Amino acid sequence: MQNNTPQILIFRSNIHTEADRHSIKQALDFHPHIDDWTVDIDDKDKVLRVISARLGHKEIVDFVQLHGYSCEELTD
Hints:
Elements (H helix, E strand, L loop, with lengths): L6 E7 L4 H13 L5 E5 L6 E6 L4 H10 L4 E3 L3
Antiparallel strand pairs: 1-3, 1-4, 2-3
């Protein structure tokens, strides 16, 4: 049985600037399994938060890399 409860997935990213955020915005906005997302370009870790009921950390990392950026799960 699949759990469809949305979870907040948190990553350190290299989305550093407003231009970077704009560049990946369309891909994240239109992904059918991403409910919402934010990136804090003012934070030292450029924290990317993704809300999804169906995707895990690996799928987000792969998707972000496919669009020219990198991220890794932020555990602390």
